[in-house]
Amino acid sequence: MSTLGLSADELLATTRSVRKRLDFDRPVERSVIEECLEFAVQAPTGSNQQGWRFLVVTDEDKKSALGDIYRKGWDIYSKMGASSSDDSPAIPAGNRGRQQMRVVRSAAFLAENFHRVPAMVIPCLPGRMGDDSSMMSASSLASIIPSAWSFMLAARERALGTCWTTIHLLFEEEAAEVLEIPYHEITQIALITVGYTLGTDFKPATREGGAEAVTYWDSWPKK
Ligand SMILES: Cc1cc2nc3c(=O)[nH]c(=O)nc-3n(C[C@H](O)[C@H](O)[C@H](O)COP(=O)(O)O)c2cc1C
């Protein structure tokens, strides 16, 4: 499989959530997904547990069932105010608001077309996330999220677009049933959509104030 030859910095700055620029008609080869997953399992895990599991879904019937579940979740989520309309109180004013509206429209597009996504990758962890201490919860999540992000970076380098999604988790048990995941033993962390991108040029996102605006040194700032 050929790669784009992006520099590490380009890769880190341009791995975007791709929804509208996915080629729904081009299948993603199993070997390419396997290659990306080899990078995923290079990530660190708490106590070197390596409890990660990745369920890859390409079966049309299963994707269709997951699409129905996702849209059911989207209907709920989009009415929660974070995303529904231009005058939603959750949408900030100015550039940030315009960026947010683009995300909402793009997310609505993905919801509509969810079943058409060529491949879906569900990172999972053993056990159920419950009332753990923040140390335990943070350690659990940090034992899968870096690996999933490595998967997404490796995918970008191979001309694949991905999007981290969580909306199907509103009905996680239903999705578990579709995929025969033992719900009481395994937690799904996300559903990463995967497909070849239409074009490969992606730009860095605008983050207001850059890292400086959200970074403190040595102590938390006084109010
Ligand atoms: C925890 C988390 C949950 C997300 N859930 C969804 C989702 O369910 N559906 C979706 O379309 N995008 C989802 N996203 C993608 C974000 O909306 C996206 O990262 C954001 O729009 C910024 O775009 P960018 O990644 O291209 O910078 C999620 C991202 C994160 C980190």
Walk me through this protein's architecture.
- With 223 residues, the chain is α+β, with helices and mostly antiparallel strands.
- It has one domain: NADH Oxidase (3-Layer(aba) Sandwich).
- It contains seven helices and five strands; from the N terminus they run ααβααβααβαββ.
- It has helices spanning 8-14, 30-40, 60-78, 94-113, 134-141, 145-157, 172-179; strands at residues 53-57, 119-126, 160-165, 186-188, 191-196.
- Strands 1, 2, 3, 4 and 5 form a five-stranded antiparallel beta sheet that branches.
- Helix 2 (30-40) packs across helix 6 (145-157), helix 3 (60-78) packs antiparallel against helix 4 and helix 3 (60-78) runs antiparallel to helix 7 (172-179).
- It is globular and about 50 Å long.
- The model is unreliable at 83-87 (pLDDT under 50).
- The chain binds flavin mononucleotide (FMN).
Concise summary:
This protein has 223 residues and is an alpha+beta fold. The chain has helices at 8-14, 30-40, 60-78, 94-113, 134-141, 145-157, 172-179, and strands spanning 53-57, 119-126, 160-165, 186-188, 191-196.
Beta-strand share of residues: 5-15%
Q: Please identify the oligomeric state.
A: single chain
CATH topology: NADH Oxidase
The number of helical segments is 7
Order of helix and strand elements from N to C terminus: HHEHHEHHEHEE
Please count the beta strands (DSSP E, at least 2 residues each): 5
CA radius of gyration: 18 Å
Percent helix among the residues? 25-40%
The top level CATH class name = Alpha Beta
Main sheet makeup: 5 strands, antiparallel
Estimate the global geometry from the Cα principal axes: globular
Report the CATH superfamily.
NADH Oxidase
- On the 0 to 100 scale, the average pLDDT is 94
**Total count of domains:** 1
